[in-house]
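ok new one. same drill as before - structure tokens go in, u give me an amino acid for every spot. 152 of them this time. try not to just spam alanines like last time pls lmao
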């Protein structure tokens, strides 16, 4: 369920708050292949199922940057800020890839508001997105996203 934030200023009171988790999605080879085509990264561990089956992971794995890019999918599923004229992705702070995502595994995003502060006419929020792999102890990716929200 998406957390509805009624106004950007409400983020200031949400520091430390968990945003819960998104639904699970399955990492499919088609998504990996599309990402490989978009980025030009066709390394065999991502796109050659036969060779990857004999490799160190036993299957094709998603690119780390593909997994990271899914933070853009998960963040609005975790939190929607209302009464904004504009919301922008300002960047990321810490990014880590503690685990791989194999083809066929399911992943989901979890969120927590790490910080929020007024910046000019808007509010800047850092939301930590943890991308979990179903059945695994270690997440695939942990990223502190930085977003700016400008009130309408």
């Amino acid at each position: 369920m998406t957390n509805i934030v009624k106004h950007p200023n409400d983020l200031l009171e949400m520091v430390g708050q968990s945003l819960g988790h998104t639904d699970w999605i399955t990492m499919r080879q088609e998504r990996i292949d599309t990402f490989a085509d978009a980025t030009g990264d066709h390394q065999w561990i991502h796109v050659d199922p036969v060779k990857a089956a004999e490799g160190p992971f036993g299957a094709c794995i998603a690119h780390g940057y593909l997994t990271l890019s899914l933070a853009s999918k998960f963040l609005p599923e975790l939190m929607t800020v209302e009464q904004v004229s504009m919301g922008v992705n300002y960047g990321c702070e810490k990014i880590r890839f503690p685990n791989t995502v194999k083809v066929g595994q399911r992943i989901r995003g979890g969120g927590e508001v790490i910080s929020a502060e007024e910046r000019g006419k808007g509010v800047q929020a850092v939301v930590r997105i943890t991308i979990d792999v179903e059945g695994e102890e270690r997440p695939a990716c942990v990223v502190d996203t930085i977003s700016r929200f400008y009130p309408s």
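Helices lie at 29-39, 44-47, 49-53, 64-69, 71-78. and btw Strands lie at 3-5, 18-21, 25-26, 79-81, 84-96, 106-119, 122-133, 141-151.
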